[in-house]
Amino acid sequence: MSEQNEPDALPWGASAAAAADRAVRAPVDPEGERLRVRLDLAYDGTAFAGWAAQPGLRTVEGVLTTALTTVLREPVRLTVAGRTDSGVHAAAQVAHVDLSRAAWERLPGRSDRAPGKALLTRLAGVLAREAAGSSGAHGLGAVPRGSSDLVVTAAGLAPAGFDARFSALERRYVYRIADGAGEGRPAAPRDPARRGQVLWVPDPLHVGAMAASTPPLQGEHDFLSYCKPRQGATTIRTLKRLEWRRETSGADAGLVTLTVVADAFCHSMVRSLVGAGLAVGQGRRPSSWPGDLLAARSRDGAAPVAPPHGLTLDAVSYPPDDELAAQAKRARIVRSLPGGDCGC
């Protein structure tokens, strides 16, 4: 993912604040002929070359944009909470799209369904046909009838001030690992059905050492050693939660997981945090190494980047409806800062 880069809110000059205020307060269409629709979606990133549309490649944005254009019969542009890298999954991604009132109102056709329900039904059919048609080209094998690796789970008119990207308070990622037997326990479960979402490593991981390595990384820091910097982008981020643990219940029982929460992430930051944790858990580095690496603030000897398939965007959180516009305004002000946008 690459992870979505939404820099921390910082004070800025009056001109940037005024521009941000205008952007947030302005309605989608002063005549009320354009509407903003929130889309909640999930996808298996295995056969996608990431979120962002790229010529000649199958991407989540590309496939969903084409499907929406087909269903709505008008061109659309998506805005997403977080752009994921190739091979990264999403259990709870959020996007929005602006469309004409006419397109929204004609969605039910002759049925008595609400427009949002009609949109979900039509998108499901279009996305299933797309997945079936692309399965051979992407080595997926036969796709079961009516299924897809991209599902829109909810669709409806967004509340005033909502912006899928700028209104978001934080993003939560989870990385899942199945390790080898150790410390009087069997190897972590290796479920073939989840092999595309869980990293398998042969050796047992020292989860206690991994957990002990995280405190120096939490809070606000310059994560240059954990990010692939982009021109004009800041690498300062605030980690609200960074937790290694072995799961004891639920679908992930036996797996080693890393849960990471922040308002924003630099490019490849989460997978670099995983890579550093793995080096500690496998005994190749001491627990102090991730913190020492952070303090070095250097791309020389930077943290290794873990494979993408173990990573899932697990949740995106937003403030109450009456605070959406204010949150978006704060985020837009930061985007006006020099170096405030990584271009993700």
How would you summarize the topology of this molecule?
Elements: H1 14-25, E1 34-43, H2 60-72, E2 78-80, E3 89-100, H3 101-105, H4 115-134, E4 150-157, E5 170-178, E6 199-200, H5 207-212, E7 219-222, E8 236-246, E9 256-262, H6 269-281, H7 289-296, E10 311-317, H8 324-335
Parallel strand pairs: 3-10, 5-6
Antiparallel strand pairs: 1-3, 1-4, 2-3, 5-9, 5-10, 7-8, 8-9
Helix pairs in contact: 1-8, 2-4
Could you characterize what this model shows?
This protein has helices spanning 14-25, 60-72, 101-105, 115-134, 207-212, 269-281, 289-296, 324-335, and strands at residues 34-43, 78-80, 89-100, 150-157, 170-178, 199-200, 219-222, 236-246, 256-262, 311-317. The chain is α+β, with helices and mostly antiparallel strands. Strands 1, 2, 3, 4, 5, 6, 7, 8, 9 and 10 form a 10-stranded mixed β-sheet that branches. Helix 2 (60-72) packs across helix 4 (115-134). The longest helix is centred in the middle third of the chain and has 20 residues, at 115-134. Residues 4-27 and 338-344 have low confidence and may be disordered.
